[in-house]
Amino acid sequence: MKSKEILFLTWKDIKHPNKWGAEWVIYEYAKWLVTKWHNVVWFASWFDWAHEEEIIDGIKIIRKYNINSIYFKAHSWYKDYKKTHKIDIIIDEAWGIPLLSPLYEKNIPIIFMVHHIWEKEWDFKFSFPINIIFKFIFWMILKLYSSKNTITVSKSTKDELITKYWFKEDKIIVIENCLNLKPLEYIDFEQKEDSVLFLGRLTQIKKVEDAILWFKEFHKNNPSYVLNILGIEQEEKYVQNLKDLVKNNNLEKSIFFRWFNKDLFFEYLKKSKILLVPSYKEWFWLVVLEWNCYWLPAIWYDVPGLKDSIKDGINGFKVDFWNFEEIWKLLEKILNNKEDYKALSESSLNTAKQYYWWGSSIDNLEQYIINLIK
Q: Do 154 and 232 reside in the same domain of the chain?
């Protein structure tokens, strides 16, 4: 099969200081496509200390403009690049807002790759009426892509695209994400401490305050337990509000904020007993499946995205939104019965193993690309 020139358009690349799960997914796709002899170019925004161009695992990374101006200037770079390079297909990715490729490319196939719909985030970031203005702009941007071939990572996002944004069902395929962590075949339950965990970005949409309030009720009857909040601070005021909430509830000796790094990640993998996932919404919660690799089940809200990667009673339990009482009762039920907890932990591991291989996802993406080019 003849190699193709594949151009990824995103606002951040794998080295960007604000990268997160979506960038890792793009990196995996791009890296594997290179091993299949395709030429892969990844265009993203520039940042301090970045090289304007570099090769990472065979992927040519090109960085221009900053994380905001890239939306207004990407078309200029693209027109110049296209003069000297043959592009077979564009994959325009949206973790937040895509780079508007349908406005400046009419002939080359475009794949819209969307992880989740950002609409609700504007309500958390801005007050009325600014939030409404941004939501309208976002709706107009999505309309540009509604007739494009689309890849998403979960059935929840596919359903949302169809029902809310009038995307065409026959042009959307779901390719689920996979894991980079190798599942742990054995764990010593005696090494686990009386601790529960929140892991993620410390932003309003993650609703970390709910995890604190869940733990507050559970802690009344289980005073030996602690809650570790292992996160990346992205909203300083919000984090201060979380700390005030802990202080006002006299939980400073039981709830601890830990700033995310690789060493802490693996330390808490081994010693925590359960993961709390109070997010308002997710795209496909890989972090839960990563923790499942270490026999760690989760409790989560029954919301889009999470319902795709977490199976009720298999690798954790879902609860209705804001049902605090059900959550702390579930915590007691799970953590106070050793045999049931071990069974749930083993089931969580087996769930993660289903996602431990990128091969089929890469094959599906490659075949989809080839068909569109033909």
A: no
